[in-house]
Design a protein that fits this description.
single chain, eight-stranded parallel beta barrel, five-stranded mixed β-sheet, 37% helix
Length: 384
């Protein structure tokens, strides 16, 4: 449907990623993430070029090791004009090594607890900030429901995420560092709307990066993303976006096209989503293709899982197909059935409990067996 609307962006400060302004005074920017292995310099540089050709304003690259850092330096030389953001994982000390080659650093508060546990989190944040200041980098505090601060285990995820980001905003403000944006992401678009709406009330001046993590396969991945983005952008909430779809490498640019289409539609008053995302029926969560994926076969597996459950699509179940070692554990633990894909096998979990590890050839049959058991139990055909 088309409605006459006027989008009034909430007033935020500006954060610059090289020459790109993020905030209410600037157009909403669109980001993506390389699915290539960072150490494959030629492939990574080529994917950055292709994403930029389709309109990516910023491209993210994952760095997990010193070899990745060395490769990143070569990537930077190959694409000197690209705005690159690096994604830190547990090893916060890599910040000083990658900062010379990037324009922005993203860190996840939940990951800072896993490495050098004796070092206070505030000290780790100060280290990251120091590297950013020396090398003229912006920061993103990236909170993800799939990898929340372990100290918040068992808490309501929305409150846990808000508590975590508030703590880290406090650290950055104490360090007199304001060149940062925030993201609060979940695989549930309703939660994305709720938490970003609340954050915008509490911190109106801080720019927001929007995303629905593990939105999954098309077309449902776009539907989930639209539900969140249309609601938030129409309220003036959101300054930069990332669409996370499960796609093969050669179709990675479609994330950019979907993001730009949603932004264009909202500004034109075209709304295609529903008021909230309806969780009735099968809900498949699958992560986007990115360089952290341990076996690209997970993309094909996600497609096969979708086909395998077509005759049960009315059942209210959540299935997670994850190829990422970062968010894979959390998302598969929360699902009714979770498939966490390793390099040579798939870990099958049922409500967080490991059923077993199976080859990529075996997994579909065992997955379907477990699915049928769950459905039979729910229908009272078996004793639970």
């Amino acid at each position: 449907m088309t409605l006459p609307v006027k989008i009034l962006r909430r007033k935020t400060r500006s954060v610059f990623v090289r020459d790109l302004g993020i905030g209410s005074e600037h157009p909403i920017s669109v980001q993506s993430m390389c699915a290539t292995k960072t150490q494959d310099v030629e492939a990574t540089a080529e994917q950055i070029r292709r994403l930029r050709e389709y309109g990516a304003d910023v491209v993210r690259v994952a760095v997990d090791s010193k070899k990745d850092v060395e490769a990143l330096e070569a990537v930077r030389k190959a694409v000197p004009d690209a705005r690159i953001v690096v994604d830190l994982q547990e090893s916060y000390r890599l910040a000083e090594k990658v900062a010379p080659f990037v324009d922005k650093i993203r860190y996840n508060p939940g990951h800072l607890h896993h490495h050098e546990k004796s070092v206070p989190v505030r000290e780790k944040v100060a280290f990251i900030v120091g590297a950013a200041q020396i090398h003229d980098c912006a920061l993103r505090i990236g909170v993800n429901f799939g990898s929340l601060d372990p100290a918040q285990a068992g808490a309501d995820p929305i409150e846990a995420a808000l508590s975590s980001v508030t703590e880290h905003i406090g650290y950055l403000e104490e360090l007199d560092f304001t060149r940062y944006v925030v993201s609060l992401k979940s695989s549930d678009p309703n939660d994305v709307v709720a938490i970003n709406t609340e954050f915008a009330k509490r911190f109106p001046e801080i720019p927001l990066h929007l995303g629905v993590t593990e939105a999954g396969l098309l077309p449902m991945g776009e539907v989930k993303t639209r539900v969140a983005f249309e609601h938030l952008l129409a309220r003036g909430i959101g300054d930069t976006v990332r669409v996370s779809l499960t796609l093969p490498n050669e179709r990675k640019h479609e994330e950019i096209l979907v993001g730009k289409s949603i932004i264009s539609d909202v500004y034109a008053g075209r709304f295609r989503s529903v008021p909230t995302f309806d969780h009735d029926g099968i809900n498949i969560i699958s992560c986007p293709s990115c360089s952290r994926v341990e076996n690209s076969a997970f993309v094909e597996l996600a497609e096969k899982v979708r086909t395998a459950v077509q005759d049960t699509e009315q059942e209210k179940l959540t299935i997670a197909v994850m190829g990422c070692r970062v968010n894979g554990p959390g998302e598969t633990d929360d699902a009714d059935l979770g498939l966490w894909c390793a390099p040579s096998h798939v870990n099958l979990k049922r409500k967080g409990e490991l059923v077993g590890s199976f080859s990529y050839e075996e997994i579909l049959g065992r997955f379907r067996q477990e699915l049928d058991l769950i459905i039979a139990e729910r229908r009272g055909q078996l004793d639970p």
